[in-house]
Design a protein that fits this description.
Butyryl-Coa Dehydrogenase, subunit A, domain 1, about 400 residues, 12 helices, alpha+beta, Butyryl-CoA Dehydrogenase, subunit A, domain 3, single chain
């Protein structure tokens, strides 16, 4: 068991770190303050392959493992957590199209998506279907060679500014539950698609978040991803990776906060000596670093389980998401405390990292749902020995 990054992984990390330092960190405060969704930035990210990290090569992607992708996303999140989070969502939607789309759909979208020339949103959550995604009510009724799409989605990242929507909708009856859900990749500006206002949020301000309503939207049958009725399985496959991605974004934010805190404690003088000379503060930063490294290793373990298609991959992804997003937020919050009053000022990035990291405990399945997933597996026969 080797925890050292190999030569390729080190190269991915170095490239992503330099890109985040030069193309993200200097602009992150402005993107946050002015709610700027910079499409020019995503085109630059696409040039380095960051918009198609684990999308297969035949669809224009880099075909990286989930572990390698996590290494890249962590570095990007240290530059701007909100923007890196959208990159992770775009990657998931692009991968879904490449993995389950028909050849014509892949040709229509994936080349531009992997290059960052076009962007994708993922549409699962509804006003009445959050944690209980299988109860969604948006419908797609077959009409000849098309589907008639009706319903609404909430909290959709990038909505109104992206080019393609990966939409989960019910092609079966409500009584069928999750078995009646299908997935579609549809152009974002079709007639009958309406976008709500850009939500005023605590964080994640560099990406818009809007509700979407579908009113008698005609969708070509070739937009179907996979088989009719197979959408929920696609969604769950996506969520395993999505949980790794968002956990990684929390780790990137936490790493940036530790970096800032270490520098600040060496420079800031109180009572005639630097903050780094006070044992209580030394211990605080040491605990923060310990939590960070534990979270990072847990996420990388879960990513390796996902890459290996381990039978317990979903449980590991849930545990990693719960642990890393809780730890990441706490580290950001503690870093803000170490900075005192300065940490509360927008002149310093600590409060932005904290605000951006907070939502990670809610989305991709709340951390309470992660506990439900873990507990269900835990009480199966032999689980304590299997989950080691």
């Amino acid at each position: 068991m080797d925890f050292t990054l190999n030569e390729d992984q080190q190269a991915f990390q170095d490239t992503a770190r330099a890109f985040a330092r030069e193309q993200m960190a200097p602009y992150a405060a402005d993107w946050d303050e002015n709610k700027t969704f910079s499409k020019q930035f995503y085109a630059k990210a696409g040039e380095l392959g960051f918009c198609g990290l684990y999308t297969p090569e035949h669809a224009g992607g880099m075909n990286l493992t989930r572990l390698d992708s996590a290494i890249v996303l962590e570095e990007l999140a240290a530059g701007c957590t909100s923007t890196a989070a959208f990159i992770s969502i775009h990657n998931m939607a692009t991968w879904m199209i490449a993995q389950w789309g028909k050849e014509s759909t892949i040709e229509q979208w994936c080349g531009d998506l992997t290059q960052g020339k076009k962007l994708a949103s993922y549409c699962l959550t509804e006003p009445g279907a959050g944690s209980d995604a299988g109860s969604l009510r948006s419908t797609a009724k077959k009409q000849g060679q098309q589907y008639l799409l009706n319903g609404s989605k909430m909290f959709i990242s990038g909505a109104g500014d992206t080019d393609v929507l990966v939409v989960m909708a019910r092609t079966g009856t409500q009584e069928e539950g999750s078995a009646g859900i299908s997935a579609f990749a549809i152009p974002a500006q079709l007639d009958g698609i309406h976008y709500g206002k850009n939500e005023a949020k605590m964080g994640w301000n560099s990406q818009p978040t809007r509700a979407i309503s579908f009113e008698n939207v005609l969708v070509d049958q070739d937009s179907l991803l996979g088989q009719e009725g197979g959408g929920f399985k696609i969604a769950m496959r996506g969520l395993d990776g999505g949980r790794i991605n968002i956990a990684t974004c929390s780790i990137g934010a936490a790493q940036a906060c530790i970096n800032h805190s270490q520098k600040y404690m060496l420079e800031r003088q109180q009572f005639g000596k630097p903050l780094a000379a006070f044992q209580a503060l030394q211990f605080k930063l040491a605990d923060m670093l310990t939590e960070l490294i534990a979270a990072r290793q847990m996420v990388r373990l879960a990513a390796s389980k996902l890459d290996a298609d381990d039978v317990d991959k979903s449980t590991y992804c849930a545990m990693a998401k719960r642990f890393a997003t809780d730890a990441g937020f706490n580290i950001c919050n503690d870093a803000m405390q170490l900075h005192g009053g300065y940490g509360y000022l927008k002149e310093y990035p600590l409060e932005r990292f904290m605000r951006d990291a907070r939502v990670h405990q809610i989305l991709e399945g709340t951390n309470e749902i992660m506990r439900v997933i873990t507990a269900r597996r835990l009480f199966e026969v032999g689980a304590p020995e299997a989950l080691r």
